[in-house]
Amino acid sequence: MHDLNLPQQFLRLLKPRLQEMLGILRQFVTAESPSLEKAAADHCCGLIGQEWWKQDVRVERIAQKHRGDFLRVTHSRNGRGVTGQLLVLGHYDTVYSTGTLAKMPFRIAGGKAYGPGTFDMKAGIVQALFALQALRQSNAAVHKRILFLWTSDEEIGSESSRKLIEAEARRSDAVFVLEPSLGPRGLLKTARKGVGDAELIVHGRASHAGLAPQEGINAIHELAGQIARIESWNNLRRGVTINADIVEGGTRTNVIAERARAVLDLRALTISDMRKLEHRLRALRPIHKGARLEISGGFDRPPLERKASAALFARAKSLAKQMKLSLGECTAGGGSDGNLTAALGVPTLDGLGAVGDGAHSSNEHVLINAMPVRAALLAALLATC
Ligand SMILES: [Zn+2]
Question: pLDDT tens digit string along 332-342?
Answer without folding.
Answer: 999 999 999 99
